């Protein structure tokens, strides 16, 4: 895939989150989370188009009010990847590659998006994601909401887990939930059936590894907190109130 490839960022956003209903419309520093994500991806300038993919007209209306592009996708989409696939089917022209930027990443950084684009443009690359190198002393290794990843010597993912891996003290990698797919690989993963490992860990990327797909893992040194729960949002609001800067 060359530098002239057509790349679209898709932000899947559903209203009915189990842990945080209505999360895309929650205010972060006075701005709806979905708007923050959209504007940060747009301002990074590394993709040709940014689209929100949702199943809820409340989110659709909010996105259109701030001037964003949105497509409606089925409520039945089981995860963000499936929602991205449903959105891609409505885009013309079909993109060469897709960035899947979660709607709960209000501080996604331009450097991260640039790294994803560079990874997916590598010859032979089909799926790419990012991870943050962590020291043994860094908090979060025991937190089940913080996903860990172990890679081989070629920086390809071997395994993702909510458990503290690898075993014993030492540095570790915290997964950052951003993905890039070639258009063909997104079609491939969209039709795969769930696997036992995926169901046990509640991590869809294990479905891809189980089926022999390779996932390139790039390193990012940007700490961009995601919002999984209302408690996460409260901590971020506290940081913003103290003058914390995401840049």
Strand content: 15-25%
What average pLDDT do the residues reach? 92
Helix content: 25-40%
State the secondary-structure class: alpha/beta
Total DSSP E strands = 11
Shape: globular
Rg for CA atoms: 17 Å
Oligomer: single chain
Distance between the termini: 30 Å
| CATH structural class | Alpha Beta
**CATH-defined topology:** Spore Coat Polysaccharide Biosynthesis Protein SpsA, Chain A
> With helices defined by DSSP (H or I, 4 residues minimum), what is the helix count?
8
Q: Profile the largest sheet.
A: 9 strands, mixed
List segments where confidence is low: pLDDT < 50 over at least 5 consecutive residues.
none
CATH architecture: Alpha-Beta Complex
User: In the CATH hierarchy, what is the superfamily?
Assistant: Spore Coat Polysaccharide Biosynthesis Protein SpsA, Chain A
Write down the domain tally. 1
Sketch the topology as an H/E string, one letter per element.
Answer: EEEHEHEHEHEEEEHHHEH
